[in-house]
Design goal:
103 residues; 75% helix; 6 helices; mainly alpha
Length: 103
Amino acid sequence: MIKHYLLLVITVCITMCATPSPAQNTWPAIKKQNFKYTCWVSLKDDPELLDTFSPSMLKSICSCAADRWENAYNWETFDKITKPPLDPDIGQQFFEVSYECAL
């Protein structure tokens, strides 16, 4: 009887634990790759950034940023909110995400 009770308790605990989930959204692979490449090209063309970060570090920053944006927005929403002219709040989010990824 105790074995059954213990098994029941373990089963309940396991099923009630929240499992970590991957990114909230999944962007189309080609769109995500294009975002990373465009990000990297724009960052590597900034001489001040190249004085601080190597090209491979810039790639890592862009990869981190892509993952963060993918987690926050589905592709359709992200594509819509990043069309020019960029809303100042979105511009600030770009700065914050890039800065955090650079750390």
